[in-house]
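Entry 12.
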Amino acid sequence: MNRFIRVMTTMLSVLVCAILVGATGLYAQEAGAPALAVTAPLVQEAAPVVVPVQPKIDTGDTTWLLVSTAMVLAMTAPGLALFYAGMVRSKNSLSTIMQSFIILCLISLQWVLWGYSLAFGPDKGHLIGGFEWFGLNGVGLEPNVDYAATVPHQAFMIFQMMFAVITPALMTGAFAERMKFGSFLVFTLLWATFIYDPLAHWIWAVGGWVRNLGALDFAGGTVVHISSGAAALACAIVLRKRLGYGKEHMAPHNLPMTVLGASLLWFGWFGFNAGSAVASGALATSAFVVTNTAAAAAALAWMAVEWLYRGKPTVLGAASGAVAGLVAITPASGFVGPMASIVIGLGAGVLCYGAVLWKSRLGYDDALDVVGIHGVGGIWGALATGLFASKAINAAGADGLFYGNPAQLGIQALAVLISVTFAFAGTFVILKLVDGLMGLRVSEEEERMGLDLSQHEERSYS
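Predicted 3D structure (tokens):
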């Protein structure tokens, strides 16, 4: 225990020093930088007045957005599917892959039919979109000036679809190895409709009330990562611990598979963040650079603190650290420069590793550390945006605390609180509803057999 306290104190000291050093270096690097062209729709409502953009399809922008869409799709299947499957026991690996794969299919239809209309459709009371775009009615091949003036509306729609796909897929790591497949399908559909779609509207859509507050979330820190992390905590609590948790050895069965998945996530994340510029220009380039920088810094930071705590660095730790850095830079990627991204990455590596260590002490079974990586990483990234955001990077954003605007940090904190509360409470209600209707958890016999056989009558390995 004394060693744990010493290591945690050292980790926090390093993080504080990194923030201070980063803050002092930001001005020299970024304060004099020219403002980048603003093309991203995911900015605050009170943006500076600019010359209106005439809607006209740009083939370069369209190409980049479609490529980014394919990259984000690859984050879920195969990226996340392999990342998670390698970390579970072999008897559950195929069922884990199946969850990510089938979410891609299920949400693809939900988004076309009603999800996109609820998330981005014409605003109803600043809370939800209407059904005017049901079945993509009115979502055609001409640009929509509110969201993307240089690409077809359907290109923007399908890019956003991939965010709606990966978010519920992320939380599957919390209840890995113990949820019924049928219940999982119903839960996912309800969660996407009643949690993801409204939250996306609040923060990203024209008229959304959190967007109107001035909250900054360039590519999904609150909408994707904080929501999935908070929902994962609710799942871990409601479904309870796996049989034998804390007593039996539950080591990852295939770490090379996990590292391959993490590498595919890293690759796809360039589409996730840089694609959110919705144009192939300077802002996309900036987001691309800081995404890679933060991931590298976080992987090194996680490796260092784990080495300090355990005495040896691990491959799983380095891969987890890279993902934590990608999570943390996501909301800030369109608002900060390289020096700030290093600090954000270092902070993610330290804080997320600390959160994973605390999991066993808090007593919940988040099987694949969704809460520690996506929840804590997303919260740190959203708050760090309030520290390091600069109009020199994105004129349509806002300055953060270190650029003379402490109010932005308060706005970011409020957005975090809203996202955590809504996602946790809403997920808890949906879980209890599904549990009452059809039961959530497999039987003890099925769990011991493994979900590959009990749910699908298949084996990953013969």
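Annotation: The chain has one domain: 2-449. Residues 38 and 394 are 6 Å apart (CA to CA).
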